Amino acid sequence: MSKHRENITWQTAEAGTWTIGFWDFELPWDEEDEEWGVEYRDTFGWVSAGHPGPDAAMDAYTAQHPNPGGGEVIPWTAENAQRIGDLNALAAQHAEGPGNPPGW
Length: 104
Prior knowledge:
Layout: E1 7-11, E2 18-26, E3 39-51, H1 54-62, E4 71-74, H2 81-96
Parallel strand pairs: 1-4
Antiparallel strand pairs: 1-2, 2-3
């Protein structure tokens, strides 16, 4: 069974490439509500970077997981600079942890 998972995709200023992060989560006590009843954390459980566009970033995930769920796409603008910086910092923290995907 596929599971709906929340994600966010953003563009970097330097290279103009795109990164996608899927939020880490806790499973509910009721396993029957495992798809919609999860509680999302403010960390990433899966990250992939260096994609030419947001669709390519999503394709990296859906190649392994059939139901990506809902997400937000944030293009690089001066107004988004702080938020993108924060997302890059979260992605870097994820990269330091065990079991992360190759290339991140």
